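Ex. 9. Protein: DNA topoisomerase 4 subunit A.
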Amino acid sequence: MSETIVIGADGVEQMPLKTYTEKAYLDYSMYVILDRALPNIADGLKPVQRRIVYAMSELGLKANAKYKKSARTVGDVIGKFHPHGDSAVYEAMVLMSQDFSYRYPLIDGQGNWGSPDDPKSFAAMRYTESKLTKYAEVLLSELGQGTVDWVPNFDGAMDEPSTMPARVPNILLNGTTGIAVGMATDIPPHNLREVVSACIHLLDAPNASVAELCEHVKGPDFPTDAEIITPPEDLRKMYETGRGSLRMRALWQEEGDDIVITSLPHQTSGSKVLEQIAAQMQAKKLPMVVDLRDESDHENPTRLVVIPRSNRVDAQAVMNHLFATTDLERSYRVNMNMIGLDGRPQVKSLDKILSEWLEIRTNTTRRRLEFRLDKVLKRLHILDALLIAFLNIDEVIAIIREEEQPKPVLMARFDLTDTQAEAVLELKLRQLAKLEEMKIRGEQEELAKERDSLEQTLGSSRRMKTLVRKELLAVAEEFGDERRSPLVVRAEAKAFLEEDIVSAEPVTVVLSEMGWIRAGKGHDIDPVSLSYKSGDRYNLVARGRSNQPVIILDSTGRSYTVAAHTLPSARGQGEPLTGRINPPSGVSFTGMMMGGDEGYYLLASDAGYGFIAKLAELQSKNKAGKAALTLPNGAKVLPPIAIAELTNSYVVAVTTEGRMLIFPAAELPVMPRGKGNKMIGIPSARLASREEYVTAVTIFGERDVLKVISGKRHLSLKFAELEHYVGERGRRGHKLPRGFQKVDALEAISPN
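Predicted structure tokens for DNA topoisomerase 4 subunit A:
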């Protein structure tokens, strides 16, 4: 289809739908970007904010005026300048009045204008009253002095300023947030003194780098006492690119045994923070905290009290956990996107923002001086005529009385312009007093001095810079204050690990043959005597601490992890293990392990291969587990054996042929997963046909007694009696005595 626009026979313009929708969407997006969502670099205001401030100034609501109902202002704004909803205008007013949202509020509100805990809790506009703050004069004071362009309002009935003639870079001082079409802006607030200092440095050194400017602008300055903990190099990178993020952390102190939070990050709700902490307490993820209190009041706007369980609780560790898991530490996106000097949206670096603003400010100052010079010259022009009239008053009066058209006669007689003649004709009788001539000469002298000064300043870039600097310093002197948000480098906060929170009580974990798992307190539980479901019975047991994980090995060699403290009590019959993990169908469970992360276990298959694994490396967060022991064809998993110490331990392996081999455990590799190395030699043909395989394996110490169990008989041997069976790893081993060649189990009995 052609993209050409055609005019139909009925005079209606026709165009392809694709062309129309593209144009309509582009027009809409440009409107949102330029006339709603993004601030202008000149005054740092969005259109709705600019219209509110201007409408209030037109209503006479200056800082020294009486308050007026906010509804009056909202009505003026939407009726004259901003044809949108009243709630949108009022919410913009509220934001500009909140000293916890704006670093330098523009509106002085009376009534309920929201609270830091709930900024949206403000009263309706029919109840609240407002006027402009003294700081708003920084934006408005030069408005009627020819400093800005004026544009028609939405219906063309009146004009409104396209920007405000701000005397300081309000774009950085109060910052702003906004979402347009395809772009957004997030500019944090800054300290007035720091920004003015950077501007003055840039006036002296126009090519100053961002690093040099960062010596003046240390970082953002929010209207809260909470700390900015972003490292200086990250802040500098943020200012260099115009994009980045920063982190804020609450202030706290210890009062006795209590933890008292005294300041929250920007726009953080104290009640939400307490809810987050309370939720952790209910979930038993914060057992070291017993109570919370909100003691905030007028004198202490933020005072949240966290009460530890005892004075032995490490307050710093608790706060580090809360910083990592609650809004006591927050991250803020920075995206310094604004409408620049060229009228286009762009993300700007700090040096570009200040350079462009100084260019705008210099131009504004020039326009103000030119406007004033024009006024001065016009007044001097008229004063010249008035002086001529006073010096020739009798003749002037005679001309006025006698001539039908006195104006051209006056112009011809005294060489006056039309404007001068009109001024002479408009003289009042009271101005003919003798002292009036002295006043005119005095005014002429003053205006002549002012004219010379203005012309000198306009003709000299150095004088212009000096004037801009002087005016910047005057604003900093009047409105500047100390930084509120301290810049502090802090270590990254880390949440408690689960094992840090759970008490380390001794537990016994029992798994039945049908896969039901449970845990009982203490190590003296007899797993066989517990109650089991009909047709079920005891299978595996592991003893450890409640803050340790339980690692389960299945018949395919995969390992799975469950938290011991989350298991049901051994007083019941437990719950299915498959509700917590997802093993392959048809597998059985052959081993359970517990202990510290540094604990070691022997993993082996009945094919005679094995290795030593560190317990931490067998853990898996995946419900499907992880591959641990690789099985040769036809081999089966042997129960894992705990190793107390690697150096003085021996591996004992026995085959179905009654052959036993003992070798140092240190000869086996320590690895996270795999098949392992050959422990005892079995001919491959016999192994493949399953004529011979390993029937039992254990770990044995030099001081232990080895118990060999064969049916109802058992044989107890000390290490000195086993010298015949000690050999190198992988050897064939030697046969046990007759009657013990069919070994059912091996046990290493410690003398302790």
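Check your answer against this statement. The first strand starts at residue 6 and ends at 7.
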